[in-house]
Amino acid sequence: MQLVLERRAERSTIAAIASPLIAIALTLITMSVLFAILGKNPIAALGVYFIEPLTDAYSLEEIAVKATPLVLIGVGLSFCYIANVWNIGAEGQFLAGAVTGSWLAVHTNGMGVGHWVLPAMLLLGALGGALYALIPAICKVRFGASEILTSLMLVYVADLGMDYLVRGPWRDPHGLNFPTTAEFDPVATVPTLIDGSRLHAGAIVALLVVMLATVVLGRTIMGFEIRLIGAAPKAARFSGFNADKLVLLTFAISGALAGLAGIIEVAGPVGHLQPGISPGYGFTAIIVAFLGRLNPVGILIAGLFLALTFIGGESAQISMKIPLDLTKVFQGILLFFVLACDSLIVFRIRILNPFWKPVHANA
Amino acid sequence: MLEAIILSVIAASTPLLLAAAGELVVERSGVLNLGVEGMMIMGAACGFAGAYVSGSTLVGAFCGALAGVALSSIFALLTQGLAVNQVATGLALTILGVGLSGLIGAGFVGDRIDPVPQLNLPFLTGIPGIGRIVFGQDAFVYVSIALVIGIWLFLYRTRAGLVLRAVGDNQTSAHALGYPVLRIRVLAIFFGGACAGLAGAFLPLAYTPFFIPGMTAGRGWIALALVVFASWRPGRLVAGAYLFGAVTILQLHAQALGLGIPSQLMSSLPYLATVIVLVLISRARSTAGSAAPASLGMVFVPDR
């Protein structure tokens, strides 16, 4: 007996919709086993992880706050991955955007400047992220260097660069030597949507980006080029599409969105620049992009779901003493199951019986 | 002083060489496993746990290699069994490995073990200048060198090595000739996993005698870059690994001297060097033709 893959005649629509749901179900089963191994009641733990955060207003707001960067970055990454371009350095572009945007906030701090500061910061953040993403993109189109490795190496460089700034030139002189900039002025912070809550206008930006990306990917020539070059690179080349241009473009888009997410995070919920502003948003967003089937609306849902795991993981750590690292394990397992289930959209698994030969010839 | 620097360069290069040697075989079979970082950090956590519990570094090294194989088997199942995209699966492997290693290693943070003993030959180790460098290393260093020689012999001097290269260079032809493409690749992936796990285990067993979460610090990714740097040839891998080890150690020494250069800039040198080297190598390659295995990273579903 042997299991073999067989290419389906056409992509299965049922499998396409069911695949993320099956993946989540399989992940939850695996997690229950893990909880049991850790000596926790699986049902109670799953409740704390996935149900409890949905029952109070504070946690719901926190989910939206955490989902904002995930969705922004994830939508950007989907442009790359659809085009079969592998930007895995979104974490670095997130930090680059946070730094370039903060530059303005730090240098106008306490000078009583007008309301133009915040829009300018967001613009600078997006620009910084895009420029930082263009480094691996240019290395790829100009020299043929693997964008996977270069974009990832630049994550470490961005992390160290930000560390230098907040410990050196940008450190708050009244900050008791803590590695952080001064609190941003009110005009340089993203306004909250409800008084006294942490839910900020960045969530609206994320929703707008989702809508915009849906239109761009589905209804424009640019979106068509991106989809075609990923699905059929040869056909795209024969139609005269410029593959190099698309590498630069998709990297710039994903870098800009990651940078925007970075400055929104710093000017929003955090309020100043400091090390550790990201619990790995740039990497989790890769999972978000795939779980959302590289579709903007799907990414919105996936971003909310993964934000739920961050919140659930934190409360599980507090109430049940479940290690925080379990959230990362959960995210890794989820990505595996998503990828495995996606395979079933294109292939069908057949069980081969050596004693029974199929009558039809498989050409 | 010079002897101390050379000794520390060798120590910094060994994990890179071990992990890159395994990945080289994997890539030569046509598979791109980006999960090296995840397998390494799992090797570090399980290697330390094994050594701490058993009191033997040999058991620790074995546990580390085993952890690497265990993780790589998930990769093999997905990419070879289910024809899933190798880049995405490799990333998932790294994310999972980082999380799992934190979970396993959490109970061991702050614990110490006795590091791997170093070779001590009665007369030879005492030779001034080269004695410690050639005859006073730990087992990992000798294993890493033996591994590279073994891989070279295997790839270029055995029939099995020729078949493995054929599978990596033209999967369709190899399949048509009757070679079991998927089985060969699965074995190569396991080998790569064992090497990455061993490389990770080196860190807490020989480099620092304790475990810190995230202690691989991107070495798995640098190992991947090294394979490109070496143009998929074992001999050049040694040169590359020692070059990177030297960059790492020299920036540490420069930091200690306090030249007024920000320490963060110095710390980022190994990563920047990786980018620069990749660019230079790829540029040289674009005129001389690619040395990469032709089927690298391609999905293979055998027809029948």
Q: How would you describe this protein?
A:
- Chain A has 363 residues and is mostly helical.
- Chain A folds into two domains: 1-38 and 323-357, no CATH class; 50-320, ABC transporter involved in vitamin B12 uptake, BtuC (Orthogonal Bundle).
- Chain A has helices at residues 13-37, 42-51, 57-82, 90-107, 117-143, 147-167, 202-219, 221-231, 233-238, 243-270, 281-291, 296-320, 325-346; strands spanning 2-7, 347-352.
- In chain A, α1 (13-37) crosses α2 (42-51) and α2 (42-51) crosses α12.
- Chain B is mainly alpha-helical.
- Chain B has one domain (2-120, 136-288): Orthogonal Bundle (ABC transporter involved in vitamin B12 uptake, BtuC), CATH 1.10.3470.
- The model of chain B has no long low-confidence stretch (mean pLDDT 89).
- In chain B, α1 (2-28) runs parallel beside α6, α2 (36-54) packs antiparallel against α3 and α2 (36-54) runs parallel beside α4 (86-105).
- The interface between A and B is large, with 51 and 52 residues.
In the CATH hierarchy, the third-tier topology of chain B is known as: ABC transporter involved in vitamin B12 uptake, BtuC
CATH topological fold name of the largest domain in chain A: ABC transporter involved in vitamin B12 uptake, BtuC
Q: How many distinct beta strands of chain B?
A: 0
Number of helices of chain A: 13
Helix and strand succession of chain B?
HHHHHHHHHHHHH
Structure summary:
The complex is a heterodimer of chains A (363) and B (304). Chain A has 363 residues and is mainly alpha-helical. Chain A has helices at residues 13-37, 42-51, 57-82, 90-107, 117-143, 147-167, 202-219, 221-231, 233-238, 243-270, 281-291, 296-320, 325-346; strands at 2-7, 347-352.
Please describe the topology of this protein.
The complex is a heterodimer of chains A (363) and B (304).
Chain A: E1 2-7, H1 13-37, H2 42-51, H3 57-82, H4 90-107, H5 117-143, H6 147-167, H7 202-219, H8 221-231, H9 233-238, H10 243-270, H11 281-291, H12 296-320, H13 325-346, E2 347-352
Antiparallel strand pairs in A: 1-2
Chain B: H1 2-28, H2 36-54, H3 57-81, H4 86-105, H5 131-135, H6 139-157, H7 159-169, H8 171-176, H9 181-207, H10 219-229, H11 234-257, H12 263-267, H13 269-288
